[in-house]
Specification:
By secondary structure, the chain is of the alpha+beta class. Among the domains are: 85 residues, 2-Layer Sandwich (Alpha-Beta Plaits), CATH 3.30.70; 57 residues. Helix content is 68%, strand content 16%. Strand 2 and strand 3 form a beta hairpin. The radius of gyration is 49 Å and the shape is flat. The termini are far apart.
Length: 299
Amino acid sequence: MGLMIVHRGNDFLSRQLNMQIGIRASQLGLLLLLAAGGCGANSAPRRDMEPERRVAPQQAANPNPADGPATAVERKIIYTSQIDVVVDDLDAAQKRLQELVTQVQAAGGYLGRQEISGSKGYQRQSSWTVRVPLAKFDGFVAAVESLGELQRHTREAQDVTDAYADLEARLRNKQASEKRLLSHLDKTGELKDTLEVERELSRVRGEVEQLQGQLNLMKNKTDLATVLITLHERVSYQPPTAPRFSTEISRAFDASIRQLVQFGQALVLLLVILSPWLLVGAIAFFPIRLLLKSRSRRS
């Protein structure tokens, strides 16, 4: 009897131990499954994120792919070039330069200024200001440098891209304000509101015209380069032939006539200046003369 009780006790302990081992094994298997699922869940987003990382720079360059590829900002630059050239024959150099200017005018440029200075016995020089399209700028400068001996050449470039973009943005805003005021003007019914909107509309239109003028001026400066040219004659200028004696007599006679005319004009101006004083003197002369005569009679 005692042996049977001991044997049953051992069987019970064995079953309890086996149950605990099974529970521990089940818990361990569940933990392994959860760990494997967590690793898979963590690794999946990483694989999904890789293409997004590769596409991100393209999206930053062009946020809306339907709009096409992104375009670079067009630079707005004002070019100014100053060229000094020494030439042997100023007349021939000017003729060649005029041909170059004609070619520039055909391309959309123009001659802004031309001046020649100098006299007999002195060095002559010719100054030109030419506005040249950017497509012809380098070629025109090279042709001018070949007219003679290059003495000086300076080139400046002023970047006005930000200022140009700012003017464009301000102009668009003012034009949008003008459209809003026009739409509001159609809706106003009272005379007071209509007059107030018209005053504001007039002010906005003035600002639009001012901004448009500034934008056109800057566009002209950026579309056409400015080239300042000075041609210096190497030797002192001498007339081709000496004037004849008859020519000198004619010049002397003409100079005498001009001086006579100037003298007559000066005399007339002097009489005009003295006429008020002469009138006052004449008015004062007669009373004084009568006073003197009366005193002489009394004496």
